[in-house]
Write a structure and sequence with these properties.
The structure holds 2 protein chains of 2 kinds. Chain A is mainly α. In chain A, about 85% of the residues lie in helices and about 0% in strands. A 5-stranded parallel β-sheet of chain B has the order 6-7-8-3-9, with helices on both faces. In chain B, strands 2-1-4-5 form a 4-stranded antiparallel β-sheet, covered by helices on one side. The chains are: A mainly alpha, B alpha/beta.
Chain lengths: ~230, ~200
Amino acid sequence: MSAPEPVSALKAGSMLVRRDLRLALRRPGEWLQPLVFFLVVTTLFPLATNPELSRLRDMAPAALWVAALLSSLLALELLFREDGQDGTLEQLAVSGLPLAWLLLAKTCVHWLLTGLPLVLVAPLAATALGAPYASIPGVLAALLLGSVALSLIGAVGAGLTLGLRRGGVLLALLVLPLAVPVLIFGARATALAIALEPMAAPMYLLAAIAVLSATLAPLAAAAAVRISLE
Amino acid sequence: MFSAIKLQLWRGDQHVLRGLCFTVAAGRCLQLTGVNGSGKSSLLRALCGLLPLEAGAVVWRGADTAADRHAFHAELAWLGHGTALKGDLTAAENLRYSAGLRRTLSGAEIDGALATVGFANADQRLARQMSAGQQRRVALARVLLLECPLWLLDEPTANLDSRGQEMFNQMLDAHLQRGGLAIVATHQALALPAQRLQELELS
């Protein structure tokens, strides 16, 4: 008796993506929470401070990026927790397919459901914080790259805290130091965009972080998940 | 042929496996027994490669599985304590995505496997609305669908009623007759011909 013809890694990844998307469609509430959190935090800022436009503009990058970072942390809990508990990750680990690739597919879905919506509502939040209309494309581009990097870096932390009952705080402690460069360059790029100045330099660095995490984070996440499954 | 050679496994400060050796030939089933906490699950997880061994080797088709894990896993169907079912998907959807990850599947095959495990009423119920025994049946249907020569099953008959256990025995017997191998940790007596069954008691 021999094993059946295995499917290609590409098809396996797309299967996993479709499954996770279908699951997300059946329970939208889970995925909307981080988005609502982002909107609430960014709209509370103008209310809590002097609503003078120049003041708001100074604060806008910090408010946007801290809210984005915290909202991505909030969403990370959803990434592997359930799959770890019900044995799905165990099945993926012994599926004969590269685990790093499967986790990358899962992280992509996670970004589609939590990172991308955040980027899409960012114009609203940025306008509420007094960003001029001309700066919106720049703000979006910075958040787009930053959210990709945050999801990927977060996957490593989510993998490491998989086996812990109350992993939330530890997850924040693990991920935040790694996410600090994203925060620094993202906020800098956003500040330049709002000031309508050239923002290429911090954008290059953000893109470099995103590419670096796309190549290394899945491998680290796979190793972390294997350790957590022991 | 599947063999374990001098397995050594520690869990924390407990020495669970002390130089364990066994061999399972094609068409045979190894039943693991032993009191709770004797290391049945740990042994199965170590054989899968989920738990790292301190020493020893797991040999499949004459090659050490540590050398090429992917090739070994491609021929392995594993069922652990978790059923790996998604509560918000139906039985058929669960199988389409979880078994479909590893091989190309048709809808008829899924229906066939569900019928084999006694899930004839292919209903649209979500997995979270099913009883624990029904979820176990769906998980067994996945093992069938993977069509792997080697089965490693940890308490596969947990929560199953007596008819479910009978169904499992038939399913296992058919697998062995096709030349498959199985290592099953269970307390239930397996109704298999004596030449197909060997037993290992862990202490």
